[in-house]
Specification:
This protein is mostly helical. Helix content is 63%, strand content 2%. Strands 1-2 form a two-stranded antiparallel sheet. A hairpin with a 5-residue loop joins strand 1 and strand 2. Helix 2 packs across helix 8, helix 4 packs antiparallel against helix 5 and helix 4 packs across helix 6. The protein is globular and about 60 Å long.
Length: 202
């Protein structure tokens, strides 16, 4: 089985994307789909954050302390909630040092920020990556719930970062701010003026 390859201007071999993948992740043809996924994730994150803000037990760290205590516990029979020892040791260390007193606020405000950015379509790829990182941590701590589905949707938004915020602020933010690699390419393509030969004396 073979596939066609192409050479770019730098002489590098480029394997083209399938038409569907190109349309999904590089054009605005399916921007409406990313809008739906964005708004769904924004709703879930904002709802979770507002629920924490209105819960005194969460904001003072009591609820998170209970969550961590339950997560690191080792049952006499069956499997523990946290499968990986290194992650259990990490949570145990944070628990013993009382980090839940401020970490609870960090979780709540992180969820709110992710939800707000996704709602506005601003820095969608970064927001989706941050949301995926939160989902990953919740899963590592043994909480499934909606986290697996949210993790998958967030990864898709990361892949579609160029067009996922088309119906949002990214439509103007991305062209205005650009990216480090596009700025470098523009600088490399700026023609340089040839050095002038010194005029002979006399």
């Amino acid at each position: 089985m073979s596939f066609r390859t192409f050479m770019n201007e730098q002489g590098e071999v480029v394997i083209p994307d399938p038409p569907l993948a190109y349309a999904l992740f590089n054009t605005v043809q399916f921007a409406w789909l990313w809008l739906i996924l964005r708004l769904y994730l924004a709703y879930v994150w904002l709802s979770a954050a507002l629920g924490k803000f209105s819960n005194p037990a969460w904001m003072d760290g009591t609820a998170l302390r209970g969550f961590w205590t339950n997560a690191v516990s080792l049952p006499e029979t069956g499997k523990p909630l946290i499968v990986y020892d290194w992650y259990r040791n990490l949570i145990q260390t944070m628990l013993e040092n009382g980090l839940y007193t401020w970490f609870a606020d960090l979780v709540a405000y992180s969820e709110f920020t992710v939800g707000l950015l996704l709602l506005l379509g601003a820095f969608t790829g970064i927001a989706a990556f941050a949301g995926a990182f939160l989902n990953w941590n919740f899963l590592m701590a043994g909480t499934a719930s909606v986290n697996p589905m949210m993790l998958i949707l967030s990864i898709l938004l990361v892949l579609a970062w160029k067009v996922a915020g088309w119906y949002g602020l990214d439509r103007w933010l991305l062209p205005a701010l650009g990216t480090p690699w596009t700025r470098r390419v523009r600088e490399e393509r700026v023609p340089t003026m040839p050095a002038r030969n010194p005029e002979p004396d006399g």
